[in-house]
Amino acid sequence: MLINILTESPQIFLVVILAIIYALTIHEFSHAWAATLLGDSTAKFNGRLTLNPLAHMEIFGTIMLFIAGFGWGKPVPVNIYNLKWRRWGGAVVSLAGPLSNFISVFVFILIFSVIAPNLGPSNLLVVFLSFLIFINLILGVFNLIPIPPLDGSKILFAALPGQFDEFKRKFTINGPFVLIALIILDNLLNLHILDTIFSFFVSIIESFLF
Fold first, then answer.
1. C or N terminus of the chain, fewer CB within 10 Å?
2. Active site residue: 8, 28, 166, 206, which one?
């Protein structure tokens, strides 16, 4: 649990929290930004078109962030009927979140490659960059899983033809329970499905860092 790090190393705890807050903030802001560009001002009118983390933090998600190191932000309100592309607009808005995390990964890798050789692996700034890279990567990959309410489900739904509308409706309702069950069973039964997915992408990124 992340809270255990607080007593062992307050500096690392702060670094991890800041990295998670950054990843969540840029993710949610990008949803709002994409929706605004595509013609829907709902997020803007609700104060979500901002990089202020407080605008994107959800109370319970923030508590879980400090306790378990895994949290979530407030969903960005989007009216898909205002978007320029009726079918694909929602998918583009959803994709903007993970894409912002992947762009962040690329940018932080560049910064890491410049300063890490000079400062060394134990330098706090280098450690911070490492967490920024891996947390953004994991958040982006996790949100592309095609299970509601994750962003990947919106992309999946946009790709499916009209005859799947009933499936979309039922999956939207039951998806959160499926996701929770997947996470719980993955841990209880030691299936390591999510770990395997994350480890695959982490190993790719590590090849660029070390």
1. C
2. 28
Tokens of 91: 């998918």
SS3 37: helix
Report pTM: 0.92
Give the pLDDT confidence of 39-95 residue by residue, as tens digits.
Answer: 999 999 999 999 999 999 887 777 766 665 556 788 999 999 999 888 899 999 999
- pLDDT tens-digit readout, 161-204: 989 999 999 999 999 999 889 888 888 888 888 889 989 999 99
Q: 3-class DSSP state for residue 41?
A: coil
**Domain boundaries of the chain, sorted by first residue:** 2-209
Where b means 16+ CB within 10 Å and e means fewer, 81-91 reads eebeeeeebbb
124 in Cβ contact with 15 (< 8 Å): yes
Is 28 catalytic? The answer is: yes
